[in-house]
Design brief:
Number of strands: 33
Radius of gyration: 37 Å
Shape: elongated
Oligomer: single chain
Strand content: over 45%
Largest sheet: 19 strands, antiparallel
Helix content: under 10%
Number of domains: 4
Number of helices: 4
Length: 578
């Protein structure tokens, strides 16, 4: 609860008496209300979701009138006739004291939206980000603001005496075209891979669109509708990096919401218009940096002043930046030669997204204690661009499979993105077999896809696996190539594969699927020209991530002692017998 007073600007009436602001849900304990008025509030079904402006002098006069047995002169001047009987209700007789019906009052204003979004000189940032942010743009459109209030009245000796105003809701609707651009540069120096840091949340200006002073009964009400413009930066990062980005986007749409201090209901529809504009993006990073600069243009309705009570609807476009970098040799073996390549990557991904949100505050200064926005609506992310900043070898996919194969024998190869690839969107691939044929594929980036092929003539074939694009819209266009020797088996091109054989389980010293054991059992030939080794689940041994020997003259051998976790998987093998 707080008190306000002053002069009713623009009218010939002034108010000097204190007004009490009573917050919804705050309870009545400690409020200086007469007992009968407090009982009136207790019976108000909307008390938990409304804010009130109460005239303390009138409430004291009501208490005095009850004490002396008649209306005081002050109340006689403002008393209204009692409510007519409700024809649908049972007769209750003459009401001396108690509740009178609330009276509706709505203030409506149409207005044009035309305001720049301009941070001016770059804003220096802190909180783990050493750098600056510049934002510029504008908003155009039209809107209508309706503020719905009700006059609270109390029955005293058969008259209805107005003593307060109840806030009901704020209705804002219209259309807007928001053009927004942001330039960000600086160095990140914190690790917050799970939590976004609000590096900046600043209200730049809030020009008053209109101000209305009026009386509901004897109660003065001042309503100020303004257009606050705020800018900010949310940042999520792991490890360290630097970023410079410059991008812009335009959004067009409509909004229609009715808000109370407990929430908003309504609809929005915004979409990206035109082609995005951008300039070169540079940066360096070891890890992941995701800057999200934003600007917000809002329609705010305040009672008396912003620091007493206000509700606002805001349109907030975001530019969702994502800078990813990697350097090292622990990001997979792309060409399946048994050696993990040293690779590097530096990419920047940029999306656009528009949020419509609401803020509400009671007895809080919005500049010193900004209310947290609550999303009412947001568009799906709209992909603007993806840039490979250095020709990243870490984008090249992994291609796993045998390095040699007999002619006329089907072979299976596996492919996926390297394990350091940071995104989860499904990737589209094309696997060229080196003989004019190719196989398309699509799979989650961390999951191997499989594709099979049969070569009909001997020779060296160069396989080329290209990661084309992902479902988010990133164009990758990176290729891994490797040679495969297609051989004619000894004694001609004839021959056949044995079934997959599995005589051992990975207990004791490991898993041993040797040629000698299968020869002794009569399951293999003495001179196989090729071998395939895989887990019992069908994963090629090169993709299983273990130290493994796969040789047609030996068979398949896995020793527990050579594995990082001390335990081999269960493998199976097959031999090609001429």
């Amino acid at each position: 609860m707080t008190r306000v007073g002053g002069v009713a600007d623009g009218t010939d009436r002034t108010f000097q008496a204190d007004l009490l602001m009573l917050q919804s849900g705050g309870g009545l304990d400690g409020a200086p209300l007469p007992a009968d008025i407090e009982a009136d509030f207790s019976s108000d079904a909307d008390f938990a979701s409304s804010e009130y402006i109460l005239d303390e002098s009138i409430m004291n006069a009501i208490e005095e009138s009850e004490r002396i047995g008649q209306l005081t002169p002050e109340l006689q001047a403002i008393a209204e006739p009692a409510d007519p009987p409700d024809a649908t209700a049972a007769p209750t007789g003459f009401k001396l004291f108690g509740k009178c019906k609330d009276k509706d009052s709505t203030t409506t204003k149409k207005l044009d939206l035309a305001s720049p979004i301009d941070l001016g000189k770059p804003k220096d940032l802190g909180g783990g980000f050493s750098g600056a942010l510049s934002i510029a743009g504008n908003i155009q459109g039209s809107a209508e603001a309706d503020l719905h209030l009700k006059l609270k009245r109390y029955a005293v000796f058969g008259f209805c005496v107005p003593y307060g105003v109840k806030f009901v809701d704020f209705h804002g609707f219209g259309s807007a075209l928001v053009n927004y651009g942001a330039t960000l540069n600086g160095v990140v120096s914190f690790d917050s891979s799970e939590l976004k840091h609000p590096i900046l949340d600043v209200e730049l200006i809030h020009p008053t669109l209109f101000k209305v002073t009026f009386f509901i009964g004897p109660i003065p009400v001042i309503i100020k509708v303004s257009l606050p413009i705020s800018i900010g930066l949310d940042l999520k990062a792991s490890l360290q990096g630097s970023i410079t980005s410059n991008s812009a986007q335009t959004s067009l749409g409509t909004f229609d919401y009715t808000c109370t201090f407990s929430g908003c209901n309504g609809t929005s529809s915004f979409h990206q218009t035109g082609a995005p504009s951008s300039q070169p993006i540079t940066g360096s990073v070891s890890g992941h940096v995701q800057p999200e600069p934003w600007a917000e243009v809002a329609l705010r309705a305040a009672l008396y002043a912003d620091d007493i009570a206000y509700l606002q609807l805001g349109v907030r476009p975001y530019l969702l930046g994502d800078l990813w970098g990697f350097f090292g040799n622990d990001c997979g073996d792309a060409n399946a030669d048994g050696v993990f390549e040293t690779v590097s990557g530096l990419t920047f991904d940029l999306d656009w997204q528009l949020h419509v949100n609401a803020r509400a505050a009671f007895l809080k200064d919005p500049e010193k204690h900004p209310a947290k926005p609550k999303d009412l609506f947001k568009t799906s992310p709209f992909h603007l661009l993806f840039k490979d900043l250095i020709g990243s070898s870490a984008i090249q996919p992994m291609l796993v499979g045998p390095s040699s194969a007999p002619v006329n024998v089907g072979q299976t190869y596996l492919g996926k993105m390297r394990p350091c690839w940071p995104y989860d969107d499904k990737v589209s691939y094309d696997l060229a077999w080196g003989d004019g044929a190719s196989s398309p594929a699509s799979e989650d980036p961390g999951t191997f896809f499989s594709a099979g092929h049969t070569w009909t003539s001997a020779g060296t074939r160069t396989l080329a696996l290209t990661a084309l694009r992902d479902d988010h819209g990133r164009t990758l266009a990176e290729t891994t190539r490797r040679d495969v020797d297609i051989t004619a088996p000894s004694g001609g091109t004839g021959g056949s594969w044995t079934p997959f054989l599995n005589r051992d389980v990975p207990s004791g010293n490991g898993d041993f699927e040797t040629l000698a054991d299968f020869l002794a059992a009569g399951l293999a030939c003495a001179n196989p020209t090729a071998i395939e080794c895989q887990t019992v689940n069908g994963v090629d041994f090169k993709a299983a991530g273990q130290v493994y020997t796969c040789d047609p003259t030996v068979g398949g051998v896995c020793q527990n002692a050579n594995q990082p976790n001390g335990q081999c998987l269960d493998y199976q093998v097959r031999f090609f017998c001429p």
